[in-house]
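Q: I have two molecules that I believe assemble together. Could you output structure tokens for the complex as a whole instead of separate predictions?
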Amino acid sequence: MAKNSSRSRMSNEINASSMADIAFLLLIFFLVTTTIDVDKGILVKLPPWSNEPPEEMKLNTRNVFSVLVNANNDLLVRKEPAELSNLRERAKEFITNPQKLDNLAEKPTKAIISLKNDRGTNYETYLEVYNELKAAYNELWDEEAQRLGHDSYSDDLPYDTRKAIKGKIPMVLSEAEPTSFGDE
Amino acid sequence: MSKFRKKQGKSTPAISTASLPDIIFMLLFFFMVVTVMRESELKVQVVVPEATELTKLEQKSLVNYIYMGKPTERFQPVYGTSPRLQLGDKISDVNDIPLFLEKFKGGVMEALHGRITSSIRVDGKVTMGIVQDVKTELRKQGQLRVNYSARKRSKDL
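A: Yes, here they are, computed for all two components at once.
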């Protein structure tokens, strides 16, 4: 009975002053383990593997935009040395052919970009070249989307619109088996 | 004047810390939500190159990682200095890829198998030879969705 009375005198609250310390401890743990950076990158769809060698295709040379990257990380575009800085512009011009020249693609649906590298090529250079070629297509898709009255080409567009744009300017980037002249 | 002095004498000097736990908890929850636990210890040095045309990888549970680069200093006596491949948490060979992919598939629902992405995190200085071997192996295994991991480049070329 005496016990009871002493309990009633005590306040009924739990002492919460150590709550902050516990929370701090957890906070510091999560602070240390956190890596905020999300994984981003260039999404690529590889062609399926087949054991037979691919068919020889007779292609009009005007429809092929060949890009070679050798083991010294130099660029050869359409059999001429080229710079990475204007590759995007050249690829865009090749695909759309605004002036209807006879050495560029007949029309965007027929344009093929062929990329070939060496086993000794730096991955960084390879990715930069790939990035530029992809950027060329992205910019063209953007322009096409704007022509149709959208802000830019993105996954938020309706499926039909995206399909129409991609049908008009399909991305054909074929990668040949690399050569192995350079040192790995 | 006297009123002012009287008040100062009476008030307790301590700031109330009653809301401190709430603030800390708020921060705690923020960090708990954004935290991504590193799933494997890196045994190769990877500094991914920079690019502009990036896609964000959604759904971490559908992504498997393949690292390529020079072994870190601690592992150089064992594995040498030439670029190697890391699957999960151990340095492996191209031949180990099929098993690695199969194991990963085991942990994913059957319906989502087509959406599994392989994120290839390669050091910029690695030559294409090893990357090509991995790509060929991935194609043979039918793992065609591939992501070349890269950082955002802010400046123009």
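A: One point stands out. The mean pLDDT of chain B is 81.
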